[in-house]
Design goal:
Number of helices: 5
Radius of gyration: 16 Å
Distance between the termini: 17 Å
Helix content: 40-55%
Largest sheet: 2 strands, antiparallel
Order of helices and strands: HEEHHEEHH
């Protein structure tokens, strides 16, 4: 999600999530997602309900979760969805050299093309 946020900021001047990210062992995690997964004391009753209704714990030790319901993409704007799709197509299940090229290119003022 961090890459999608970064691309969206670069192209449209605003983030998708408007959140801060924590550096974790396996990558950056939006703080609100971290709070949901950990059932943080900061969560409201509505957020706890959402967590318990839509997320299922798969592996306690590894903290693997899955979504019980299909994601509602309509909560995102078209530009949000375009950036998420672009990042997914470029990086999901691909090697890290694509990621490194992305970081270098965006730092040099270039960007990925969105749909």
């Amino acid at each position: 999600m961090w890459l999608s946020d970064r691309l969206h900021i670069r192209m449209y001047g605003r983030p998708i999530l408007n959140d801060i990210y924590f550096a974790m062992k396996f990558g950056l995690v939006p703080s609100n997602i971290k709070d949901l997964i950990e059932a943080s004391e900061f969560l409201s009753e509505e957020e706890l309900f959402y967590r318990n209704t839509y997320l299922e714990l798969i592996d306690q030790k590894q903290r693997y979760y899955k979504s019980i319901e299909k994601a509602d993409a309509q909560v995102f704007s078209q530009s949000d969805r375009d950036c998420i799709k672009t990042i997914t197509e470029h990086f999901v299940k691909k090697n890290h050299s694509n990621y490194q090229k992305f970081l270098i290119n965006t730092q040099n003022g270039q960007s990925l093309k969105t749909p």
